[in-house]
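Homework-ish question, so no full write-ups if that breaks the rules, but can someone show me the predicted structure for this set?
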Amino acid sequence: MNAIVISAVLGVVMMFCGVFTNSKPAVRFVAIIGLLGLLIANVLDMGGYHFFNVNVNGMLAFDIFGLLFNTIAFAATWIYFLLSGRDMERVGVNLAEYFALIFFVLCGIAIVSAFNSLLMLFLGIEIISIPLYILTGSDKRNLKSNEAALKYFLMGAFSTGIMLMGITLLYGAKGSFNMEVIRSGTTTLTPMLAAGLLLLLFAMSFKVSAVPFHFWTPDAYDGAPTVFTSFMATIVKVAGFIAFIRLFEGCFGEVHKQWQLLAAIITAATLFIGNITAVFQQSVKRMLSYSSIAQAGFMLFALVAMNETAKEGLIFYAAAYSLATIGIFAVLLKMKDYTFEGFNGLAKRQPVLAATNTIFLLSLAGIPATAGFWAKFYMLSAAINNGNVMWLVIVGVLCAAVSVYYYFRVIQAMYFKDGEPQEIETSRGFKGLLIVIAAVVVLLGIFPHWLINQLYSFFYL
Amino acid sequence: MSSIPLTHILFVSTALFFIGVYGLFTRRNLITMLMAIELMLNSVNINFVAFNKYLYPHTLNGVFFSLFIITVAAAEAAVAIAIIINLYRNHRSIDVEDAQEMKY
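A: Not a homework solution, just the prediction itself:
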């Protein structure tokens, strides 16, 4: 509860900041300190210090899984503020409002990671989506940004409609929005229940951009101002997966086999289309948006396997993927040319940026000794433990091999090609922070058991 | 009161939902597309109220959910109209076919 209340209050505080001060460093400072406070409040919540005791009538359930995910999401956002907060100034004049919208999105994430009622799921998803439509279109003079906001809105509203239709059918079949009621009697499927669950599956696939429903993703991510693409492609996307897995955990009783096949087909299609299309991209930003679809395919493994390993693996994956992608976007933001050629010869001019960027790309590709390797390892081993979907594991490994191609194209451009190096202004603090993140990525790759042991001690205390 | 069976109301709401889906996919005018989305959301409202009234009359769950949907739909429409006005200022048109900056 701490996170929900404090993030909403912080959003309002940021809006007042925009009224009372014009100083951009002051606004940024308030946002960074506020988010740090939010993070600490959430960690205290995990330790049992609840600041707010609100009777939620069972609509929210604060289990350790959701709170742990909140911690990772807030920490990733904090790093994102530190790295890219300065770049938000270039989008437009309303710096305080951008921070306010991001805090509202975080409030939605805190709701979505704790929902126990379909009403809260709907509200959480909408609280995440509506500020994101605004952030996508925040570059008001830019035609691409306008168009991206439009596409994102149309697809988002359409999927909201589908989700509501699913919820209403579930309500008709069960008479309650409570997840426990929905889980308890779902051993046999009536047509209405099956239709409701299927519509919910489609709507959630829209939100996490799984493949038959991924068409909005490249355009929305490509058109949005790059600072906000970084936020959308990492923290928000992973939050969608937390909602997804909370929603479908144990929902399917007798028909578990058929459901698993359906989820496995979506996963395989997501991996395949995401990776293959990413190979043909000319712009690094667009390549990263397809790569986010491909990484979503790996996170979907958690949905197929649906066991404890998968849940812990998903949290680990969230951390590894968010850190690496935020780092790459922070470097990309400093470039003026987003094509692969723009990276030519970066290693000579900016050795620190090139080296850290290489580590992040290796982590995304899943090379051993980086966090991304263990993230993929846990996902695949969860699927193997489950035992029914060996073919999917093979598809996953093959697609990971394909992904190496387009990640290494960037590394190749940075180190082995000569080009006109761009003028890039970076501060010493920015470089230092990038090095720290790269070090964390490598340390998580060498000692993954540290984080996993922390997870275990939280899960089984 | 109960002379109208539940299935008739469900038929109306399902028809409205699919009219909304059809409108969203065939119309090219942005305001019409927004109206199609509202149609989808409102068909869900009818569904909720009907289920609540006919199947679970002792609670008010469904009615309250539809109140939330109305609120969220209003917020969504506000954002959508802001986006459309912004697009109109840059393009001088509210036809989706004109918004084609990004190619695959």
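Now go work out the reasoning yourself. Hint: The helical segments of chain B are 6-26, 30-54, 61-91.
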